[in-house]
């Protein structure tokens, strides 16, 4: 009964967010202030802001959250009340970030999202990988958020205000501007899992699939893109920071795409895909132009639709098969069983992968082309950043098509060549979150789970036409050719039943292991050193002081004989000793 009440409340809150976006659409931008606090010159109020960007993100958050809440009714049944409460709080935290016109109010929503993500990723707390993934996500994002907090203070004190709408209205030293924006960028890199703080997001996959959909599509990782878009004028004024952002984005999109090409578990492929697609959005923002900002936000909206769809489809596979590792799924698809038994899941996942790969006519095609076109305009004007972004996004488009086609074929189709070729995956196919490990007869999910898939699939198609269908045919032809060039090798490998993965890519370039040696091992040694210092140095003095007091009390205890004659003897001896001492001093 309690779980049902929470589910109704969760769906109701998501619908309220959607209604708010509808009511605010077309309204004049407005800032509403509430009483604040502070000390000395550092004073801030809690302000809310409504404008076009607010409406856009409220719509995205509300729709994806509503789909996740409805989908979860059929997907998850254990600890449902706490799960739904946390998802609702998670959504409310993202809404707080979106509507904030105060850096500190935004920080509150930012940090609450981090806490909720930790609790939701570890929902299956009885599993070791869920616990470790949650801790890893929490520690990495909290580390980045320390810099984020300092960045808020640097910009707020530098501009003399903590209102986002007033930042840039007064002069600030270039050093303070660059320092503040770089510190904020560190927080964004951590929250959006960009290089070098990218390792937490793929390891967060043991959480429930609806949580993954919410994190990857509408909250948490999308918050970084929103923040830079919200403070865009400030970041544009800091040219050095935008250059740093461009370098990070270009490295991240290629690195993550290569990792996705080697992953053998559906959710891990999608996780690396999210890292790569977010980098494309950051690359658009790094151009420092209105077209770049528009393209990045356009891609953010379309990505929310098809990535939320893909994670929910992965959840159906987990729900029905018990795993989304390629090797396990292939055992059910030798004769195309999953494709025939789950036609809605197959159809909607095909739409999602087509949108992700940039197939013409789907939403991802239009939004990715918008980023490419914005980069081309900058490159044509002689911008080095424009050229780097253009080349990186084009290469990433080809790599994206490769891993999308690879995933689609290996999961849903029977390899024409060797029937046992899939066994090559046996040794490295990790189990994903298991709702029901029994491999019962395949069938499509309940309609309460399929309805959100159909809605998001429609979004993955029609959202591409919501931008007025502005299409540069040269760019469209280029990206289509690149997608084909990426898809053909994947198809060829599948036809031959081969899936070679270079060891360095398979291990995701060994970054996690390197971080373990460079960070985890030294921290453990310092922790052991601190324990030794506390136990063997400070503790020794404490124990010695206590032992000395104990021995002294035992010595004095021996003097307490109860014999009056002994007491008088000691008294006389004491008087004589004092007299002798007085005489010596007097002489």
From TrEMBL:
Transmembrane regions listed in the UniProt entry: 53-73, 80-98, 104-125, 137-160, 172-190, 211-229, 235-257, 269-288, 308-329, 341-365, 385-405, 447-466, 472-494, 567-586
UniProt domain NADH-Ubiquinone oxidoreductase (complex I) chain 5 N-terminal: residue ranges: 46-79
Pfam families (UniProt xref): Proton_antipo_M, Proton_antipo_N
Domain NADH:quinone oxidoreductase/Mrp antiporter transmembrane residues, every copy: 100-379
GO molecular function: NADH dehydrogenase (ubiquinone) activity; NADH dehydrogenase activity
GO biological process, one term: ATP synthesis coupled electron transport
Keyword Transmembrane helix: yes
Domain of life assignment: Bacteria
Name the record gives this protein: Proton-translocating NADH-quinone oxidoreductase, chain L
Originating organism: Kribbella flavida (strain DSM 17836 / JCM 10339 / NBRC 14399)
């Amino acid at each position: 009964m309690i779980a049902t009440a929470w589910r109704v409340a969760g769906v109701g809150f998501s619908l309220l967010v959607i209604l708010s976006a509808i009511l605010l659409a077309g309204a004049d931008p407005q800032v509403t202030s509430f009483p604040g606090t502070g000390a000395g010159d550092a004073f801030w109020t809690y302000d809310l802001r409504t404008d076009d960007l607010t409406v856009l993100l409220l719509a995205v958050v509300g729709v994806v959250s509503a789909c996740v809440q409805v989908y979860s009714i059929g997907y998850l049944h254990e600890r449902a009340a706490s799960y739904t409460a946390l998802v609702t709080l998670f959504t409310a935290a993202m809404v707080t970030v979106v509507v904030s016109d105060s850096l500190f109010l935004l920080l509150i929503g930012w940090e609450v999202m981090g806490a909720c993500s930790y609790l939701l990723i570890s929902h299956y707390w009885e599993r070791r990988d869920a616990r470790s993934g949650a801790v890893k996500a929490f520690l990495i994002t909290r580390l980045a958020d320390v810099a984020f907090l300092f960045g808020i203070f640097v910009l707020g004190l530098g501009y003399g205000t903590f209102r986002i709408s007033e930042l840039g209205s007064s002069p600030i030293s270039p050093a303070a501007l660059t320092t503040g924006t770089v510190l904020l960028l560190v927080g964004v890199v951590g929250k959006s899992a960009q290089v070098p703080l990218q390792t937490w997001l793929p390891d967060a996959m043991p959480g429930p699939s609806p949580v993954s959909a919410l994190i990857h599509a509408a909250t948490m990782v999308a918050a970084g893109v929103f923040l830079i878009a919200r403070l865009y004028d400030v970041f544009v004024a800091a040219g050095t920071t935008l250059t740093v952002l461009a370098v990070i984005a270009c490295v991240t999109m290629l690195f993550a795409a290569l990792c996705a090409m080697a992953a053998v578990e559906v959710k891990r492929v999608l996780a690396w895909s999210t890292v790569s697609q977010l980098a494309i959005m950051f690359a658009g923002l790094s151009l420092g132009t209105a077209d770049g900002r528009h393209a990045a936000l356009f891609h953010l909206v379309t990505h929310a639709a098809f990535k939320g769809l893909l994670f929910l489809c992965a959840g159906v596979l987990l729900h029905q098969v018990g795993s989304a590792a390629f090797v396990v799924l292939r055992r059910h698809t030798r004769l195309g069983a999953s494709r025939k038994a789950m036609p809605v899941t197959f159809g909607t996942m095909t739409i999602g992968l087509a949108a992700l790969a940039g197939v013409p006519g789907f939403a991802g095609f239009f939004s990715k082309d918008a980023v490419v076109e914005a980069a081309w305009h900058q490159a044509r004007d002689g911008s080095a950043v424009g050229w780097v972004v253009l080349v990186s996004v084009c290469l990433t488009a080809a790599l994206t098509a490769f891993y999308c086609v690879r995933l689609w074929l290996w999961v849903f189709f029977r390899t024409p060549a060797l029937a046992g070729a899939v066994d090559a995956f046996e040794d490295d196919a990790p189990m994903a979150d298991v709702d029901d490990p029994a491999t019962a007869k395949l069938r499509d999910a309940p309609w309460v789970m399929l309805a959100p898939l159909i809605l998001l699939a429609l979004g993955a198609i029609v959202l591409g036409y919501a931008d007025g269908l502005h299409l540069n045919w040269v760019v469209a032809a280029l990206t289509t050719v690149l997608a084909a060039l990426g898809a053909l090798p994947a198809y060829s490998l599948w036809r031959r039943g081969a899936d070679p993965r270079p060891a360095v890519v398979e291990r995701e370039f060994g970054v996690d292991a390197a971080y373990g040696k460079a960070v985890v091992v030294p921290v453990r040694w310092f922790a052991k050193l601190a324990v030794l210092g506390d136990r063997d140095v400070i503790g020794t003095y404490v124990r010695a002081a206590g032992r000395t007091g104990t021995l002294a009390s035992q010595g004095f205890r021996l003097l307490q004989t109860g014999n009056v004659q002994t007491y008088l003897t000691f008294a006389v001896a004491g008087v004589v000793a004092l007299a002798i001492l007085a005489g010596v001093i007097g002489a």
